[in-house]
Amino acid sequence: MKITVFGASGGTGGHVVAQAREAGHDVTAVVRAPNGRDAVANVMDPDSIAPVIAGADAVVTAIGTRGRGPTTVQTDSTRSIVTAMRAAGVRRLVVVSNSGMVVDDQDGPASRYLVKPILRRVLAHPWADMAAMEEVVRSSGLDWTITRPPRLTNGPRTAEFRTATGTNLRGGNTISRADLAASIVACLEDPGTIGQSIAIGY
């Protein structure tokens, strides 16, 4: 499979690139600044990213935001990627969001009434950006999957994670970036994840 990865210089994106290549996929890693190895493109410009998407079987975006201030980085970059994918006829898209902004019946009382309300205030701006990004994905008409990890760590790849489709994962409070990447690579070849949000955690 030919895969284009945006956010390839980040913690999760770097693991996606490495694991996808390890699995035998042809990966184009897209970064913002030249490093002599990867493709450079302005992800906010569909024309700029058209060459790195052309001919791909799937696209992954692990672009994140930094800081807690107002931002539209994920929404704007994803909208640009969707536009370029439509123009190129590329359909498979996997994006990284988060499970913290979602409250459902899989959340325990402490999470629902204490932890998440606090985080919703602290992370109001980046979470608003992620929520808007998800709307862009869901309305894209593409074969999308939204992955929703909890708190990310720099722990090792264990393959011992759990997933839940369409709901939060009860008790899944952390996940390593390496295991999140493993889940993303698995989603790319699993048609059962198309049109679904997938929560992941330990």
Descriptive overview:
The chain is α/β, with parallel strands linked by helices. It has one domain (2-201): Rossmann fold (3-Layer(aba) Sandwich), CATH 3.40.50. The chain is 38% helix and 22% strand. It is built from six helices and ten strands, in the order E-H-E-E-H-E-H-E-H-H-E-E-E-E-H-E. The protein has helices spanning 11-22, 46-53, 73-88, 109-122, 124-138, 177-188; strands at 2-6, 26-31, 39-40, 58-61, 92-96, 143-148, 151-153, 162-165, 174-176, 196-201. An eight-stranded mixed β-sheet has the order 3-2-1-4-5-6-10-8, sandwiched between helices. A two-stranded parallel ribbon has the order 7-9. Helix 1 (11-22) links the parallel strand 1 (2-6) and strand 2. Helix 1 packs across helix 6, helix 2 packs across helix 3 (73-88) and helix 3 (73-88) packs parallel to helix 5. The radius of gyration is 16 Å and the shape is globular. The mean pLDDT is 94. InterPro entries: NAD(P)-bd_dom, NAD(P)-bd_dom_sf.
